[in-house]
Every structure is written in structure tokens, then in C-alpha cells.
Amino acid sequence: MTSSIHDSSVRGFASDNYSGVHPEVLAALAAANGGHQVSYGEDEYTAELGRVIASHFGDTATIFPVFNGTGANVTALQSLLPRWGAVICANSAHINVDENGAPERVGGMKLLSVPTPDGKLTPELIDLEAWGWGDEHRAQPLAVSLTQSTELGTLYTLEELRAITEHSHLLGMRVHMDGARLSNAAAALGVGLGEMTTGTGIDILSLGGTKNGIMFGEGIVTLTDGPADSMKYLRKMNMQLASKMRFISAQLLALYGTDLWLTSAAHANAMAARLSTAVQATDGVELVYPTESNGVFASLPNAVADALRERFRFYDWDRAAGQVRWMCSFDTTEADVDSFVAALIEELAAR
């Protein structure tokens, strides 16, 4: 019987979620499928994952595997807040733009978003909403959430992260990091995972995997005292507790138990750099933000974008401004990039 499934050999640039599963992760899943293991996280794979995570993030780090990124963000933030708590974030943050109100509706928290020029918070921007403590009429700002790398593909330096955590802690707020693309950030900065998180004062982390080659699942990593105490209850309450947790843990082990997280992320970054360089040399298209990880943000006429999209899948970022986003993945090849650039030049020339 001939398959009707779309030809997966044509890779687009819409999202690193579009990529397949890394062969090493598939092998790890298959290996985990033999025999019985205790359910709900009392299995050997989850225990080993805990040891691996401690080796990256320090002895105080504890990982809680969950099903997806939104669940990780909401549950992590809940662990930092009482019912009257609020979270300061960038207005471009995934929790503010792309999670359908889950932090507010499911998590029961208020988001206090601030505009940023590049997707990055600063102590000064945080102060725009860091006020009103003790006022019963205002949701209390008790946490800050930042994304590394940001939704605009930009990166916080270690110094910038330390400035944010020190400022937030002095104000009595704890700091969450959405690390959906943490591996890309670490690869780009040339630093370790722990150096960028535990070492800069982050309290809790949503640890990404699906954007870097695993099939499903993410992790919440508690880095300081406090959040871990409530996590086991919050995870269950939020429907993020997997009965067969070994299959999430086995994937994260394949990624973080070796240097696969680093090599895959570094490759995606390199492909984005290749695409960015080509774009900068092409008349009629300009970069909107610097390419610092695995995303390229560019401006070009909507008609060109629409024509190009008939051949390669990608998203508008801001259609009114003529801005698009192109993402590279662990399986993006140089040939993919070169074919895309050739098609882009062809479409530009046709108009």
C-alpha cells in the first residue's frame, strides 16, 4: 500500500517543533520499552535522570518530568506564588502570547507584561511593574519569568541574568526561566547549563527537549529551596504526571546524559547563522533582530513571503510590518538552507 503521508524530506523553517525525533532518542525509547518499571516516576530511568540533572545544575537541583512546555511553565510558576501572586514578564513571552491564557486560567496567576525592544527584561523594565506590595487592590508581583533564548532569538548574557536575579531577589521576587531553547542558548554562549541557571541565581527552570530532538515531554528543574516541596502535588493537579514516566525520562536522558543536547543545538544555531549570513547579502530582505541562536527574523514584502511559503513552510511574525520568522532545527542541513535562500532570491527577483 502506498503511503499518502506528506514527503518529510522537504524541511521547512516554521519551527524547531516541526523536526522529527533524533535517532538516538528513538533508540532510547525503544530500549526503555523492555520489561516492567514502577510507574509515576519511581522507575530506574527517572532516578538516573535525576542524577544527570544534578551533574548539570548542582546537587540542589531536582527534575520533575512533565508532558509539555505550557504545563512546565504553568506548574513551575505556580510553585513560586500564592493565589494572589503575579508574574512580571516580557510582552513577547511565550506565557503571555502563546499559551492561550493558561497561566491565568489554569495557574490562577496575574501576568504583568512589559514592552521590550529585543525580548529581554532588564531590572529597569522589571521596575515598571514591580510595585504595589501590600496593596490589597493589586496582584502582588512575586515572580519574574524570562526566556533563554528569547522568543525573538536573542540571548541574555550571564551578567544580564545575574543582574535580573539579584534585583528580583532584593525585591522579594523569585525568578523562573522558560528554557524551551536553553540548549541553543548555552551552545551559543559557550557555557554550561548550570553556569547559565544555577550559577546566575535562577530559582526554577522549564527545561526544553521537544525543540531539540525528543518526541514529547519536558522537565521542571527546581534549583533553590522551596519550589520542590509543592511540585509533586502541583504536577498531578495540573494533569502533568505521567504514569509511564520512564518514556519521558529516557528521552531526556538520551539528550542530557550525553552531549547530544549540545551538538544538536549547536548545529541548529550554525544553520541559522548560515541562513542569516545569506539573508544579509540579499537585496530586498533585512534582519529584524540579530541572529544569536537558531532563529532568523527578517522583513520582506508580504507577497514574496506568501509565494515563498508555497514551497517552504514558515510563519509570519508581524504581517502588518512584513516580518517573518525562520527557525532551524537539529536536522536542518546546509542543502536545506541553500535551497531556501535560492528560492527566496528567485521570488524576490520575480517581483
TrEMBL record:
Residues 13-297 form the Aromatic amino acid beta-eliminating lyase/threonine aldolase domain. It comes from Paeniglutamicibacter psychrophenolicus. It holds the Pfam family Beta_elim_lyase. InterPro entries: ArAA_b-elim_lyase/Thr_aldolase, PyrdxlP-dep_Trfase, PyrdxlP-dep_Trfase_major, PyrdxlP-dep_Trfase_small. It is an enzyme of class 4 (lyase). Coiled coil: none annotated. One of its GO terms (molecular function) is threonine aldolase activity. SUPFAM superfamilies: PLP-dependent transferases. This is Threonine aldolase. PANTHER family: L-THREONINE ALDOLASE-RELATED (PTHR48097), LOW SPECIFICITY L-THREONINE ALDOLASE (PTHR48097:SF5). Its cofactor is pyridoxal 5'-phosphate. Its EC number is 4.1.2.5. Belongs to the threonine aldolase family. Keywords: Lyase, Pyridoxal phosphate.
